[in-house]
């Protein structure tokens, strides 16, 4: 079995998390391809692996809203938990992929976690952008309520993603939307 198959088995502890990781990987693949990034397959793989650590959460935390201050330590530790699982299922994973998994919640200016990097790598921000976009438009899967719009999701991503990511993500979303069969 390759790492994707093993990761999929682990992620399927929570099918909602597996679905999220798969969609984030698909979006990341489309965005990095559009940006002609040479290492786009590795970035896409990191995107699929990014939330492995959420499989260690108690099930109620996945769908909890609002989150309580006491949950924050577990939540902010999940990129490290992802790395720990990755180390078990793929002991020789490339450092590049490890860094992206660890850094998918880093934000410019140091407002992210777990390391508060001032200038996260572009690849981290691409996964972060696709992650936030998917988490918002599919939030209703985790937390019952009205579906949130693509426009709202993009406005949230815009708060931290540089313009080249915004342009590519917007194009990918427009293309996906326009190729959807009309009901
Ligand atoms: Fe995450
Ligand atoms: Fe995520």
Question: Can you give a write-up of this model?
Answer:
With 183 residues, the chain is an all-alpha fold. The protein has one domain (3-176): Orthogonal Bundle (Hypothetical protein af1432), CATH 1.10.3210.10. The chain is built from eleven helices and no strands. The chain has helices spanning 3-11, 15-34, 40-49, 59-62, 72-76, 78-89, 95-102, 122-137, 139-142, 150-157, 163-178. Helix 2 packs across helix 8 (122-137). The mean pLDDT is 95. Residues 50-51, 78, 104-105 line the site of one fe (ii) ion. Residues 20, 24, 50-51, 131, 135 line the site of one fe (ii) ion.
Mean pLDDT: 95
Please report the total strand number as a whole number. 0
The main β sheet shows up as: none
Estimate the strand proportion.
Answer: under 5%
Order of helices and strands: HHHHHHHHHHH
> How would you sum up the global shape?
globular
Q: What ions, cofactors and ligands are bound?
A: fe (ii) ion
Instruction: Output the number of helix runs.
Output: 11
| Low-confidence segments | none
Number of separate domains: 1
CATH fold-level name: Hypothetical protein af1432
Question: Per CATH, which architecture?
Answer: Orthogonal Bundle
Pfam families: HD_5
Organism: Pelotomaculum isophthalicicum JI
Protein name: HD domain-containing protein
InterPro entries: Cyclic_di-GMP/3'3'-cGAMP_PDE, HD/PDEase_dom, HD_GYP_dom
